[in-house]
Structure prediction request, 258 residues.
Amino acid sequence: MVRLGQNFLADPNLLDAIVRDSGVGPEDTVLEVGAGEGVLTERLADVAAGVHVIEIDRGLEPGLAHVIARPEVNLIWEDAVKTDLGRLDPAPTIMVANLPYAVATPVIMRTLFELPSIRSWTVMVQKEIADRLRAEPGSKVYGAPSVLLQLAGNVRLVRKVSRTVFRPPPRVDSAIIHVERTGPAPDDETRRLVRAGFSHRRKAMARSVDTAIPGSLAKVREALEEAGIDPGVRAEALPPEQFAKLSGMIDLPPDERA
Prediction:
């Protein structure tokens, strides 16, 4: 039975491969979002020190009784987009999950910014999301999530996943990506600049930022020129490291909504 739009993994070989690909070991505490039927949770609990699982659908509880009973598993019945990740104890060191497609990007971003203890992510997502998160400058799908994630880690495609391994098969293709953290998450001002830069993709970056943050046009143009970048450039043309550099050069006006 499908609940809340979930599609459950039904291929044991793929489940075993996900655990191997993640590199999870006996010293790790895992974060999994979306318990489903608990088949991935069980495999993670077999090799990790502990597993925090966040699941919103209480209707799955009867089928997860065998997982909940395991001492390694801490199952939290909450919405992963809203739950307080900071109260996870011990703090997770790795994230492994078959993410519900509707929340995949916000969940990955939340864990990036709020859980500095996580060193890597091995997650199954909709292929379109995987393409977006690992997109390069100039791509039509390159955007704020691409920049912010790539500023903190290396993103690679592990494997494409056939629809036939799910029950029932979804209408979209899936993929597994692995993100290896290389540094801290971007600071608040860099996040603000990146999101403002992509808020109006058809505009030059300076005008896009000024539309989102009024009064910033001259400052952004000046920083672009000082950095040797065409002041008419669009955000989609800038690699992640240039956003980080520009952020340190621009004193953006305060957020009037704050």
